[in-house]
Amino acid sequence: MSYVFSPAPVASVPVMGCGDQFPVHRIYCVGRNYEEHAKEMGFTGREPPFFFMKPADAIVVVNDGQTGELPYPALTANLHHEIELVVAIGKGGKNIKAADALGHIYGYAVGLDMTRRDLQADMKRQGRPWCIGKGFDASAPISPITQITHAGDVANAAIWLKVNGADRQRSNVSHLIWNITETIEHLSAAWELQPGDLIYTGTPEGVDSVKRGDVLEGGVAGLGTLRLTVV
Ligand code: MN
Fold it and tell me: What is the pLDDT of residue 39?
C-alpha cells in the first residue's frame, strides 16, 4: 500500500524525564468548567458538561524552562488566554465510570486553550459551531506530560497564569465544577476514548486578551510551567 503523498507527522508531546513522546490522538476540551469563569461568561449554576474539539496538530509544545512562540492568529482582534489542566489518556474505553477513571490516565500537562473570542461570540450569537473560534492552528500550547505517578495531588493543585509578569488567572483545580474523573465519565459516554487523547479540562476566571509581544507564563502546581511569547 502506498499513500498518494506522505502522511502528516504524528503530533506528539514529550514525557517529562524519560525522553519518550506521547502521540496525540484527539484533543477534547470542556466548556465553562469553573463556576467563576462561567459567571464571567454570563452563565451561572452547574449545567451538564459540554465538549468541543481541537485538531491534534493544534498543539504547540514548549519544553520546561524554555519560551515558546505563539503565532497571533488571523481574523481576530481579541485573542484570549485560558490556562487549563490537561489530562492525557493512556488507556481507552467507553462508558468509563468516574470510580475507574484514574486507571485510564497516563499523566497531566499544563495547557492553554487559546480562543478567538470575537469569532466565538459571533458564532454563538448566530447559533453556529465554535470551530473557528477554538480549533485554529496553534490554538493548543502544551507543556511536557508528567506521568500520573509523579504528578502529586493534581486534583487540589494551584493553577495560574501571568501575562508580562502580572497575575491574570489564579485558582485551584479543586474548583472544577466537573472534576477530572467525572469529566472522563461524561466524555467517554459520548466518544470512545483512545490512548493518546488529551482533555483540556476548562479554565478558571480571569480570561482576557493578549497581543503580539506579550509573554504568557502559566502553570499547575507539580506539573511545571508553560511559557510563550505571542509573535
Ligand atoms: Mn477552555
Answer: 87
Domains in the chain, CATH or no CATH each: 16-230 (3.90.850.10)
- Please, which residues have CB within 8 angstroms of residue 196's CB and are 6 or more apart in sequence? 22, 23, 24, 25, 26, 89
Q: Which DSSP letter does residue 130 get?
A: S
For residue range 119-177, what is the model confidence (pLDDT) as tens digits?
A: 999 999 999 999 999 999 999 999 999 999 999 999 999 999 999 999 999 999 999 99
Q: Which of 130, 114, 138 is CA-nearest to residue 52? A: 130
Average pLDDT taken over every residue of the chain: 96
> Which residues have CB less than 5 Å away from ligand 1 (the ion)?
82, 113, 203
Q: Say how many Å lie between the CA of residue 43 and the centre of ligand 1.
A: 15
32 CA to centre of ligand 1 in angstroms: 7
Can you give the pLDDT at residue 46?
72
Number of C-beta neighbours around residue 218 at 10 A: 25
Q: How far is the CA of 94 from the centre of ligand 1 (A)?
A: 23
DSSP-derived 3-state class of residue 59: strand
DSSP single-letter state for residue 40: H
The answer, as to whether pTM is greater than 0.85, is yes
Q: What's the 34 CA to ligand 1 centre distance in angstroms?
A: 10
Q: 140 C-alpha to center of ligand 1: Å? A: 10
The string of DSSP codes covering 191-226 is S-B-TT-EEE----S---EE-TT-EEEEEETTS-EE
